[in-house]
Target: ATP-binding cassette domain-containing protein
Amino acid sequence: MIEIKNLHKYFGELEVLRGIDLTVDESEVVCLIGSSGSGKSTLLRCINFLEEKNEGEIYIDGQLVLEKDINEIRQKVGMVFQRFNLFPHMTVIQNVMEGPLTVKKMNKNKAREQAIELLEKVNLLDKADEYPAMLSGGQQQRVAIARSLAMEPKVILFDEPTSALDPELVGEVLGVMNDLAKEGRTMIIVTHEMGFAKEVADRVIFIHEGQIAEEGTPEDIFDRPENERLQNFLGQIL
Ligand code: ADP
Ligand code: MG
Model:
């Protein structure tokens, strides 16, 4: 579903991604872990063209991603951020309908029907007519997930979706993501929730200084880490 070859990204002199090769299969759930500043967000942002890469190739669904196809790519690749970025002046259901209406030119009844289904899926149908400010962080993040799903993406990228949440709200968001994983969605998730990664990931990738330092099954990574940097990282976080 995604194939990344030799991806390099610089910010000025600083080489933030130093030759990333990564293939993600359909229905695969990949968790990215690593220290702050190691390049995890930049990697996701390059996949979605929120950052322009300096070198390398990205294929999505077999198609080489080019700058000119940016709108098409953004439809195929959904993204959920640490901060939910909902439209504050729109109700919950309007937030979910917005992409399909404006980008996909879906008719209003169909968009509404789909939004209702998605809000049901994330357990928020009762909040459909509220404004985001009235919702808890966990509820807002679930709306953000529904909004992303409304575009029917092939892949969803999550960048620390629970890091901005109060601890008691983390579970409800991870629960929704777990459901998506079970549905066979293709997902790449940057997370510090190691228990979650252990449970849902098909593969865990440890990024260190802009390179893939180790990858494997959750058991490989958490129970039998080989790379010393990974051992240190896990020692700090667990
Ligand atoms: P992570 O998500 O793993 O914490 P990031 O991808 O956010 O890491 O950042 C990797 C490195 O790139 C850091 O050193 C960060 O300061 C730098 N960086 C990220 N975004 C920018 C930017 N827009 N301009 C300059 N430097 C940046
Ligand atoms: Mg980050």
User: Anything to note?
Assistant: Strands lie at 2-11, 14-24, 29-33, 55-60, 63-64, 77-80, 155-159, 186-190, 203-208, 211-216.
